[in-house]
Amino acid sequence: MSREQFNRRSFLQRSALIAMAPSVPAFLSRSVRAAQPGKDGRILVVVQLSGGNDGINTVVPFADEGYAHNRDELRIKKDRLIKVNDHAGLHPSLRPAADLLEDGRLAIVQGVGYPNPNRSHDVSMAIWQTARFDPVEHKIFGWIGRAMDERPSVADGSPHSILLGDENPPIALRGRRSMSVSLAHLDDLKLKTDAKLTTAPGAVPNGELLTFTRRAALDASSTADLIDEVTKNSARNAAAYPQTELAGRLQSIAQLIKSGFSTPVYYAIQPGYDTHSAQLFTHARLLRELAGAMKSFLDDVKSAGHSDRVLMLCFSEFGRRVKENASLGTDHGTAGPVIVAGSSVNSGLIGQTPSMLDLENDDLKMQTDFRQVYATILQDWLGVPSATALDGAFERLKLIR
Fold first, then answer.
1. What CATH number does the domain containing 279 carry?
2. Any domain includes 215
3. What is the pLDDT of residues 45-58, one digit of tens each?
4. Which domain holds residue 177?
5. Which residues partner with 265 through β-bridges?
6. What is residue 11's predicted lDDT score, i.e. its pLDDT?
7. Coil, helix or strand for 350?
8. d(CA 324, CA 63)
9. From its phi and psi, is residue 51 left (phi > 0), alpha (psi between -120 and 50) or beta?
10. Angle CA(59)–CA(61)–CA(63) in degrees, nearest 5?
11. What is the pLDDT of residues 185-208, one digit of tens each?
């Protein structure tokens, strides 16, 4: 063994991929080595826009008199917008997303939120991730984990969900039986721990996290071989991606999909949307990064023949206030747009654009409950019953063709 190989093995032996489940099947050594990659299972890719995206300057209601009244310095002029209809247009940084819209691969659900909105980042994000309003349940299981509990084990032993990133695994992926893993990079595996879970499991009623917190490190040598194989196979059909962190994470997800992983749910996080001040530049950059990464990813999986299997969901914990603040930014608000992209969506704006004149406590009124979006994706896309995951039945949207 060469010194380079030895160093690689030594590094990986000090790293680990942690499976958040009672047991860890050897999926890494089996999934990519399958004779034929799985092409039938549908896949959901979730992108979390952390911080509270300003939906008003994402899908801009330029014909609404309230827009000019409440947005002076932050108002985007009509001639700069990417016009969608006679009432609304997309932020100019969303040109790649607009191309997806024109190609019939992008839907935007407008005014999405929940009753009695909470403007705390932590609380609102926990509500979105768990589909629960009881604070006790915010520490247990998430809507995706619960939904994956309803599915049988993945045939080749792949996990039900994978987080690509170095953040703490989101509560959304936690389930009682389903397995979720966390990857920092395909070639840089990191040990994931959560101090709150390991030091205070008794903080959760009935010890429900005791099973969840059982972790085991996978064999480093097999993992190294897998990463080598994924990278080698993917390099043959490498697509061009922007040089951004989000794009890199979505590219890694595309590599796993093209390499034959049967995992049905992938998750990535884009931070930075808490734009209380100097919003114009920051928001434009974030939307440019999001749209560029989305377009590259969806084009990549399309060119590889997986377009009809992949659906992307982009959400944020809340929107921003209608009126700009004195610091050229916006504060925590309520409802906002949710982006759903892929070749199987009913493309276009879905639902009523919230009025900037008909407000509730100076905030936008919710038009669509976020659990309707979840119910639609779970049942119409993933084929999973949604009532248990969402703690009730919710009317589905005409979102999936």
1. 3.40.720
2. no
3. 999 999 999 999 99
4. 42-182+244-390
5. 44, 161
6. 33
7. strand
8. 18
9. left
10. 150
11. 876 543 333 333 333 344 444 444
Reduced to 3 states, what is the DSSP secondary structure of residue 299? Answer: helix
For the purposes of burial, counting CB atoms within 10 Å of the CB of 345, is it exposed (0-12), middle (13-18) or buried (19 or more)? buried
Distances (CA, A) of 337 to 59, 90, 110, 213, 294: 7, 11, 5, 34, 16
SS3 187: coil
Note whether residue 229 is domain-resident.
Answer: no
Q: pTM here? A: 0.84
Amino acid at 290: L
Report how far residue 159's alpha carbon sits from residue 262's, in angstroms, rounded to the nearest whole number.
8
Within a domain: residue 113? yes
Q: Are 270 and 50 in contact (CB under 8 A)?
A: yes
* CA pair distance 50, 237, nearest whole angstrom: 31
Q: Which residues contact 210 (CB under 8 A, 6 or more apart)?
A: 201
Q: What total number of domains does the chain contain?
A: 1
How far is the C-alpha of 332 from the C-alpha of 285, rounded, in Å? 19
State the average pLDDT over residues 33-44: 58
Q: Which two tokens stand for residue 323?
A: 């009126």
